[in-house]
Amino acid sequence: MDLRGQVEKEAAAARAAVPALVDEAVGAALETAARLAGERRAALLEANRADVEAAPGLDPGTLDRLRLDDGRVDSLADQLAVMARAEPLERDAASWTLPNGLQVEERRIPIGVVGANFEARPGVAADVASQLLKSLNGCVLRTGGAALRTVTFLVDEVLRPALESAGLSAAAVGLVRSADRQGARVLVSLPRLVPLVILRGSGETTAELARLAAGNGVRTLAHAEGGGVLYVHSAASREKALAIAEASLDRLGVCNRLNLLLIDRAAGDLGAELLGLLEQRGIAVRDELGREWANDSNPSQVTVCYLGSAGEAIRVANDESSGLAAAIVTEDEAVAREFLNGYRGTAGFWNATTRFTDGFALTGAPETGINVDGTPGPRGPVTYRDLWLRQYRVVGDGTQAR
Questions:
Q1: Residue 312: CA atoms inside 13 Å, Cβ hemisphere, count?
Q2: What is the pLDDT of residues 223-245, one digit of tens each?
Q3: pLDDT tens digit sequence for 285-305
């Protein structure tokens, strides 16, 4: 069977499994998946070691995203357990009666099968699958080739056995079982089977897939750009500014870390101290605005820009970044409100790091990705609470007519 046939088979099987998904059984399956991730830790880490060893020459950020360790396996299992216990999505959104007596209910119904194409980051497989199952959707996963062994283990030895243990079909979680990038192109070309695909990864690759999906009649939720903005105002606390900058750089291979540092010219010696902090951490300074870490082969860089006002910082944050997240450090509440009110990205922070731009951190549910689109729809961290279709149900008594 060719690659397209394989993906179609996985998608069709997931679609057939969807009608049996119910809240109680899905919760039980996710609880079991959390337990299996812990019990099968050694084999999971061995699969991951094989992936890491087979992928020499990766840049530091990509390698950081690929590698699992005991702590990350614990986090993966914990998030599955949290999802198991999370409140099911409320299906009844609203109800009302029209003057003619028609009773109208607004309902949230499952999408069906949702595809997900994501970077070589194994934990994303569990995050995305758990979100989609929790919203009573099936899924077909496609990971970067470097993580295929690890993700295959998670699907075949953790998620699918857990589904079966709860009386559900293992096929509800499908997988593109090929490292060939053509698998992603196939996934975004099946509108009848997979009407929505979540896209994560580097900017140009994701943009190309989004264009291909649009041409095939497939909708996408794209998470293509990363990079947080930090504006250090002249009224910033020195201690807070340094602490937040450091906290924003704890991991370089994540989308919400510090990418663009804006320093008020009136901040005095604090600017030099911030540059010293970057130097101590081995992070290169650049002055080219508008480039995101996701498009760079070396993520160990931060763009630094000096400016003269909060208004200028707002403009730069809006026009020269991805729109993912921006933070201001200041003790001046009026300036903080000005910055937050003017910023148009998905998350704004005052005296806090953009590293909290994360579904689990903000909402208690792991995200499928962070959508930075400037159009109506789920924006920011997308979780199971966003993955539904609106449906109206109308009941009459046979007497109503237009």
A1: 11
A2: 766 789 999 999 999 999 999 99
A3: 988 776 555 445 556 789 999
Long-range CB contacts (< 8 A, 24+ apart) of 92-101? 93/390, 100/400, 101/396, 101/397, 101/399, 101/400
In this predicted structure, what is the pLDDT of residue 294?
44
Same structural domain, 70 and 206: yes
Question: Both 170 and 57 in a single domain?
Answer: yes
Residues 247 and 179 in one domain: no
For residue 254, the domain's CATH number is 3.40.309.10
Distance CA 372, CA 206 (A): 13
Residue found by looking up tokens 């707002």 in the block: 314
Helix crossing, 270-280 with 238-247: angle to 10°?
30
Contacting residues for 175 by C-beta, under 8 A, at least 6 apart: 10, 140, 141, 142, 151, 152, 155, 156
Distance CA 108, CA 135 (A): 10
* Residues 6+ positions from 384 with CB-CB distance below 8 Å: 83, 86, 89, 130, 131, 132, 134, 135, 365
360 in Cβ contact with 389 (< 8 Å)? no
Sheet with strand 325-329: strands edge to edge? 284-286, 301-307, 258-264, 228-232, 325-329, 347-350
Q: Examine residue 400 and state whether it is found in any structural domain, yes or no.
A: no
Across the chain, mean pLDDT equals 93
Say yes or no: 199 and 317 in one domain: no
H helix or E strand, kind and range, residue 311: helix 310-319
Q: What is the dihedral of CA 153, 206, 387, 213, to 10 degrees?
A: -110
| CA 140 to chain CA centroid, nearest Å | 16
With a cut of 50, which residues of the chain have pLDDT below it?
A: 294-295
Chain centroid, CA 45 distance in Å:
23
Domain around 194: 3-224+372-393
Tokens of 272: 């030099």
Question: Same domain, yes or no, for 195 and 308?
Answer: no
Q: How many domains does the chain fold into? A: 2
Q: What is the pTM of this model?
A: 0.83
Q: Are 216 and 283 members of one domain?
A: no
